[in-house]
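ligand=acetoacetyl-coenzyme A
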Amino acid sequence: MTFNLTEEQEAVREAARDFAQRELLPGVIERDNEQRFPAEQIKMMSDLGFMGMMVDPKYGGGGMDTVSYVLAMEEISKVDASASVCMSVNNSLVCWGVEKYGTEEQKEEYLTQLASGQKIGAFCLSEPEAGSDATSQRTTAEDKGDYYLVNGTKNWITNGNSAGIYLVIAQTDRTRRHKGINALIVDRDSTGLVVGKKEDKLGIRGSDTHSIMLTDVIVPKKNRIGEDGFGFNFAMNTLNGGRIGIAAQALGIASGALELSLKYAKERKAFGTEIANHQGIQFKLAEMATKVDAARLMVLRAAQLKDAGKDFAHASAMAKLYASEIAMETTVDAVQIHGGYGFVKEFHVERLMRDAKITQIYEGTSEIQKIVIARKLLK
Ligand code: CAA
């Protein structure tokens, strides 16, 4: 395993960094205040190829590896985690899921639009009573011969209102438990699909989180992904990759907090010298940098395993668990280093601290990652 980046990977990182600093940074505080989705910026990210980075070029994607994707995710998340969660869900849950398990027809019809960013995707697994306990799906997909009749409610759906294509996980045969669940591609304009209110959130306030109500939605059988009953395994396998994206997001939030803290510590004076000269601050910075470095190695390891076609579920759960925990710790420290300035919006670190929290919750809470890790250890 090597952590030397290729020239192409370095170029992707530079391009993402440049884009984030130039296009995402101005206005990020206002978008957070107003809970405004970064629609223009996502359009630019689509034009630059950030929305379908790993998709085969024959479907309009960038044909890049997972390592390039996590490098871009880190740079974009340093500045705007609301934009990066939209990017992550589209790339590693929706595009990857359709490309890996979809039919050729599904890829031509849907993946091409998702990879180009012409349409954004949403992944609809969570429900009011099925978050961590994802097998307890209440949404039903009744088999009606050549179509499914879908009824139910999905909660906390990222890209809920901006999506054009929804991957909906629903129960077809409750007696078969998780083997009776299907994953369906549902068009935004399907009759009976209603987008609920936008959630008023603690963090990632620019991201577009909604509930989705489905009432007698007709979904043709050709829109089912995989064999009948494959939906739960589809969701689990797809989330393994999604978790690498969220780990990279958490890493970006943490490394963004570190960069801001280093800059501030070298400028701010107290007791007659820059606060960077005080050992209390130096120790905090040293701890933050060590955690960020360790998280980055874990994220890169998970990405490399995925690129090598090896089992990466364990590594991705570990990377997400660790990166999200240290995102929380380092952003709290960043606020402390900034003192009173850290508590006001202008200095960005309070937003990073609020944004960090969700990385311990979505795409599997820290507790779920521990279950995944422990099950592998005890096998
Ligand atoms: N990778 C691959 N397969 C897995 C898996 C994994 N990590 N975890 C479970 N599975 C498979 C099992 O192998 C089993 O398959 P088979 O029957 O074919 O062998 C099947 O799934 C059922 O497994 P379990 O019996 O272990 O199921 P369980 O109910 O005991 O627990 C769980 C499973 C790990 C707790 C799972 O429910 C889980 O991961 N829950 C968290 C769900 C989650 O991450 N939700 C996030 C919502 S999406 C989101 O946040 C997107 C967004 O918008 C940002």
